[in-house]
Amino acid sequence: NEKLMLYKLQLSHRQDSANLLVFIALLTLTILTIWLFKHRRFRFLHETGLAMIYGLLVGVVLRYGIHVPRDINNMTLSCLVNASPATLLVNVSGKFYEYTLKGEISANEISEVQDNEMLRKVTFDPEVFFNILLPPIIFHAGYSLKRRHFFRNLGSILAYAFMGTVISCFVIGMIMYGCVMLMKEVGQLAGEFFFTDCLFFGAIVSATDPVTVLAIFNELQVDADLYALLFGESVLNDAVAIVLSSSIVAYQPAGDNSHTFEATAMLKSFGVFLGVFSGSFALGVATGIVTALISSDFTKLRDFPLLETALFFLMSWSTFLLAEACGFTGVVAVLFCGITQAHYTYNNLSPESQDRTKQLFELLNFLAENFIFSYMGLTLFSFQYHVFNPMFIIGAFLAVFLGRAANIYPLSLLLNFGRRNKIGSNFQHVMMFSGLRGAMTFALSIRDTATYARQMMFSTTLLIVFFTVWVCGGGTTQMLSCMRIRVGVDSDQDNSVSRGQHPSSKHLYSRWTFDSNPFSYLKPILTHSGPPLTATLPACCGPLARCLTSPQAYEVSFRLPSVGTLTYGDVTVSADASGARASRGLGPLCGVTSDEALDRELAFGEQELVIRGTRLVLPMDDSEGPLAPALPPPPSGLDLRRHRE
Amino acid sequence: NEKLMLYKLQLSHRQDSANLLVFIALLTLTILTIWLFKHRRFRFLHETGLAMIYGLLVGVVLRYGIHVPRDINNMTLSCLVNASPATLLVNVSGKFYEYTLKGEISANEISEVQDNEMLRKVTFDPEVFFNILLPPIIFHAGYSLKRRHFFRNLGSILAYAFMGTVISCFVIGMIMYGCVMLMKEVGQLAGEFFFTDCLFFGAIVSATDPVTVLAIFNELQVDADLYALLFGESVLNDAVAIVLSSSIVAYQPAGDNSHTFEATAMLKSFGVFLGVFSGSFALGVATGIVTALISSDFTKLRDFPLLETALFFLMSWSTFLLAEACGFTGVVAVLFCGITQAHYTYNNLSPESQDRTKQLFELLNFLAENFIFSYMGLTLFSFQYHVFNPMFIIGAFLAVFLGRAANIYPLSLLLNFGRRNKIGSNFQHVMMFSGLRGAMTFALSIRDTATYARQMMFSTTLLIVFFTVWVCGGGTTQMLSCMRIRVGVDSDQDNSVSRGQHPSSKHLYSRWTFDSNPFSYLKPILTHSGPPLTATLPACCGPLARCLTSPQAYEVSFRLPSVGTLTYGDVTVSADASGARASRGLGPLCGVTSDEALDRELAFGEQELVIRGTRLVLPMDDSEGPLAPALPPPPSGLDLRRHRE
């Protein structure tokens, strides 16, 4: 019996390996095809769209091509007990076997459970998406944010992400409720569908995906502000949507199954939203700052890039785990951790670690993303409880369209009152058109497919994702040319800031930003970019400031005026799927000052990055390679070596 | 009920997150301490030893410090059925819950299962080690092999790894059998202990760990041949030990429980060993070659480093899965895949991908290794079925010592008959002393702790690992100076080969190597290093050879005579934990020819690597950075740009 049991476990392990192999083969195929597309400069189908197509094909084959006979090892025994513990010990003729709870199965599933062994095998636990695949994607989104343009458009981005998503959620929820009511009248509804379900649907399809469109934007070098608006919105509204949907689930009126409106429950939901969001935000930012502190100059961790990278990876991962352990949302925490890491920690890392971390998360993001999209394709055929209801689907497409419109147009109108560079109507149309749905929408909808309402939502969501990725994603290039959006814009050209004159620190921090008072004092402490604290704090705090400022911050600050004749390149963390640096502009140095003080501050942080970036190019140690002596010294009087100490 | 159930699942998820967080915190702490040690140049305790100490401390705290009360959610229900299927459906008052089989539990465990919730929570499924943690470690070992010295000592390494491990296994097995017999006489044995168990113990403690000692060797730059011998032996004997142990388990005489010797069963075991080993070997090499082909010049994949890296990662992973799905040993396949990737694919990759893949696997290796070692420390207190038997432990330490001696000394004596540069007695003593036991031994011993014999083995193995890592690992520096081993040796200085004269290809391939006939024809096809096929194949095969040889191989071959005055650096894939390049010699170019033709071939392959390596240092594109125009052209007449095409 023991032997048989071992054999069974082995067999199941071998099958698992084979199933995982199917996905790896799928990914490999996708990569090879992407390469072919890139090679031939074929731009109409993005890699995610491609991954979905391959997934679909495999799904068809698994569903109709392969018939796995009923598995004798997997027989089902019914055993009557009066509770469902997490661990079950089963006594089989004197031997005890341990079973762990996997989940509830609806009664109508039971008959099917055994028939489609193969389809069941390639089905992942939905929690895999939230705990393994989404975190690297979301972290990468935060880490690869182009900070300067993001913070310049922060107000608008927050408006779109928070108000916009809530508006979209409620508009879609209302329309769907109307649709469901109509369906009930016509007799097309085979199960219960409450208003909270409609709102939940609104929340999950309000999460727009940054991947597909922005890859194209990046390649075409679309206007940086449009890019920042769309990217910032997509990234943040994922966070809003996930918290919003969990708050809606938490909405539970006093009478357990009444599903009617109740003010206290509504307030409670709102409280949950605020609590979870701010908790996740705080956690993410906190871990980012702790990492920045650990990797700052006070420790000399930067001499060991491997340790640094490992630490960076572990700290970012622990944000996720910490948030989950505290009952917050790990994905949201990871997003803000990524933004904080990009803003503070990145500047502290050694050049090698900067490359390593970027490349590592780029790779993880690439793999996770393509995996999710090919799984999405697969699910259309492998999922066994699809409910495709034509009326619901038509209603949903209409609602998604109207919801997006109700988000973008009114908010843009409002925002344009306050903005100096207005969001033009062509920008608005592009934003309207580019609201693709992707990984987050899918992950949220597959998380719970137990009820009839949820199954119908899942099927409809899949179709929405397919449509938006293929049609909207494929039509982006046409849309851009149709709307006469500038392409081929170097994102840094129009913002070149004088480095010739060091602006007075008062002026530098005069506007509210992420780094404004009191945050402005954080950056010089956490990194060694930015003006030293001695310049920004009042004179009375002199000794404290000197103690908290690293020698390098002094150096950078005091050396800057002499850099006068050096042209500079601007390195930004790349969001480009092909791994090439996204933008590396050559802004000629001009004596003119820009009026945007904020720009200066943010660009200033990046300048520091460039100075370090050059270390990668110039071999500076004698051990660096045989060619080193043949190289001339750096062109300016800057002694880059002193940076390393 | 459904709500409660969801809540239970959520709670269990939160606990899992918290437990994983403990390990992440442990790793973070380890990294910070390692950094401190490296910073202070403290060399007596390696990071793995440190990780174990931290693990021990956490184990003590969990065991004696935290008392988690009996968990009400985890109650155990006994339910009598007559089989143990992989999936169990439990009918709880009309609702069906799905349970999955976790494993058998021995009767005496049942009483304890509930008491130590916390300890149970931090216990991983042993298969995690084999399927998640070991593969990156082993792959990295293969990928970071210093190929030149490895292949030069291949014969000796194979002898130590195959014959040595088998000798060690049987010697230890015999001694332990004697010890067990004695214990039975004295009445110290509380359960069954068969001869096969003894042999199994011999197999698992014969796997030596390459990590700790070699990190020190690397840092001190110990003699390259000694390094190659020890590293090669440690890496390969892991593979031998894992297959050997599974063959011993497969040894089953006709009468199921007789455990006596039987010739046919022995033969069957031997067949299993050969089949599994050669199958895994073939699979690993095959995947490596396929990857090399895909990333070769015929496809222009190297223009997209991200795709290339992703492909490399997926192919290497699929080796593991494929081997497991076929019933071979994934870890062994991954080892040979790594060696093949380093030998063939690495040369095809773009410089960026070379760095990326190295760094990626370095990071994975670092994390996995430290995780295993800290888990090892933890297990000493968290594992609940330890059987510490003083007699068995003393016997085991003696047996391990004698087993290692019976491996090294007689084999060295034999090998010295055939070797030109003899393995000196001081080398032999160091090899004897450096036989640390580590991750593989641990993973093999924790895989099955169901019986009394296995539990006793596991406890003893833990102690052996602790002792060897702390004492032998810590004493390596002393041992080296005591044995008067040369340190600070540049591994390439004594092997500098003339590139001024291109040796005749006949002479080049005159000795049997990995790349000897017919393998020699493989390398020019799979990579574009090495002499073109047109030079190595007979004249009649001219057209075929021209067709199979990439234009770059021609270029390299025909250009070499002109490189005459260029000094060269030798880059090897780094095995250094700190991420720095392991060895980068500056061999001055001399006109003298070395007598080792093999050296030339291997160095030749690495020369190609260097030429490409310089591309990292020299900015060659206009987009590369603002400083590019200021740099002089490369010192030699080589047009490096043409490499890229």
UniProtKB/TrEMBL annotation, chains A, B:
InterPro entries: Cation/H_exchanger_CPA1 (IPR018422), Cation/H_exchanger_TM (IPR006153), NaH_exchanger (IPR004709), NHE-6/7/9 (IPR002090). GO terms for biological process: regulation of intracellular pH; sodium ion import across plasma membrane. It is found in: Cell membrane; Recycling endosome membrane. Gene3D superfamilies: 6.10.140.1330. Residues 30-481 form the Cation/H+ exchanger transmembrane domain. One of its GO terms (molecular function) is potassium:proton antiporter activity. GO terms for cellular component: plasma membrane; recycling endosome membrane. It is a multi-pass membrane protein. Keywords: Antiport, Cell membrane, Endosome, Ion transport, Membrane, Sodium, Sodium transport, Transmembrane, Transmembrane helix, Transport. Its main location: membrane. It comes from the Eukaryota. The chain crosses the membrane at residues 20-37, 49-66, 128-145, 157-182, 194-217, 272-294, 314-339, 360-385, 391-415, 452-476. Residues 623-645 are annotated as: Disordered. Belongs to the monovalent cation:proton antiporter 1 (CPA1) transporter (TC 2.A.36) family. This is Sodium/hydrogen exchanger. The gene is SLC9A6.
